[in-house]
Design goal:
The complex is a heterodimer of chains A (113) and B (115).
Chain A lengths: L8 E5 L4 E6 L7 E8 L6 E6 L4 E2 L4 E4 L5 E6 L8 E9 L14 E6 L1
Parallel strand pairs in A: 1-9
Antiparallel strand pairs in A: 2-7, 3-4, 3-8, 5-6, 6-7, 8-9
Chain B lengths: L4 E3 L2 E4 L5 E6 L6 E7 L5 E8 L2 E5 L7 E4 L6 E5 L8 E8 L9 E2 L3 E5 L1
Parallel strand pairs in B: 2-11
Antiparallel strand pairs in B: 1-3, 3-8, 4-5, 4-9, 5-6, 7-8, 9-10, 9-11
Classes of the chains: A mainly beta (113), B mainly beta (115).
C-alpha cells in the first residue's frame, strides 16, 4: 500500500471545526483514500472514504486535493466524543483479493472542553 | 446498523495454553480479517480469509495461529500455545467486497492477557 503521512497529534476546542491533514504523494490512480478512527479501548471505526471528489457524510467531510497528493478530513463541530486516533489509509480500488488495510501511527486528536 | 461481534471481550490465559477467539461477521460479508494491537502500538494485520481459505497472512501469523469458519456464521482465531508476547487486543473485521473502496467493519475487540 502507498504510504501516508499525518501529524502525530492535533488539538481542538469543542464545537469548533477540525481539519486533519494527510499527505499521500505516491498515491496511484486507483487508490481510494479511507479514514478510520479509533476511540480509546475500541476497534477502528470507519469514518469516510473517497477517490477524487470531495465527500460528505453524517460524520465528516473529506476534501481531496486536485492532484490527489493530499487530503483533509473535516469534522465540522468537534465534540468530546471525537477525541480519538484518526488514520488515513490508501486502498486500491481494483484490489479484489481481499488484502489488508495498513494502519500507520495516525493523528491523536484531543478535544478541549 | 449491523455490526461485527466478538467474544470474549477479555480473556486471561496461562502461557502455553490454547486460546480461541470468536467473531460473528456481518451476515452478507464475504471477506474476513483478524488484526491485533499490542498496548500502545499500531493496529497490525494478521490474516484475511475468503471463500473458506486464507487469502493473505502477515509474518506475525505463524504456525501457532490458525483461522476457521466452522459453521458459516462464526469466524475464529486459534492460538495453539500462547506466549507472553501474544498479549494484545485482537480485532475481527469483515467486508462484502474490497473493490471500489468498500468499507471494512471492525468489531470491538477481544483483549487477551497471557500470564
Amino acid at each position: 500500500d502507498a504510504k501516508t503521512t499525518q501529524p502525530n497529534s492535533m488539538e481542538s476546542n469543542e464545537e469548533e471545526p477540525v481539519h486533519l491533514p494527510c499527505n499521500h504523494s505516491t498515491i496511484s490512480g486507483t487508490d481510494y483514500i479511507h479514514w478510520y478512527r479509533q476511540l480509546p479501548s475500541q476497534g477502528p471505526e470507519y469514518v469516510i472514504h473517497g477517490l477524487t471528489s470531495n465527500v460528505n457524510n453524517r460524520m465528516a467531510s473529506l476534501a481531496i486535493a486536485e492532484d490527489r497528493k493530499s487530503s483533509t478530513l473535516i469534522l465540522h463541530r468537534a465534540t468530546l466524543r471525537d477525541a480519538a486516533v484518526y488514520y488515513c489509509i490508501l486502498r486500491d480500488g481494483e484490489e479484489t483479493s481481499g488484502s489488508r488495510l495498513t494502519f500507520g501511527e495516525g493523528t491523536q486528536l484531543t478535544v478541549n472542553p | 446498523e449491523p455490526e461485527v461481534t466478538q467474544t470474549p471481550s477479555h480473556q486471561v490465559t496461562q502461557m502455553g495454553q490454547e486460546v480461541i477467539l470468536r467473531c460473528v461477521p456481518i451476515s452478507n460479508h464475504l471477506y474476513f480479517y483478524w488484526y491485533r494491537q499490542i498496548l500502545g502500538q499500531k493496529v497490525e494485520f494478521l490474516v484475511s480469509f475468503y471463500n473458506n481459505e486464507i487469502s493473505e497472512k502477515s509474518e506475525i501469523f505463524d504456525d501457532q495461529f490458525s483461522v476457521e469458519r466452522p459453521d458459516g456464521s462464526n469466524f475464529t482465531l486459534k492460538i495453539r500455545s500462547t506466549k507472553l508476547e501474544d498479549s494484545a487486543m485482537y480485532f475481527c473485521a469483515s467486508t462484502f467486497w474490497l473493490a471500489n473502496g468498500n468499507t471494512i467493519y471492525f468489531g470491538e475487540g477481544s483483549w487477551l492477557t497471557v500470564v
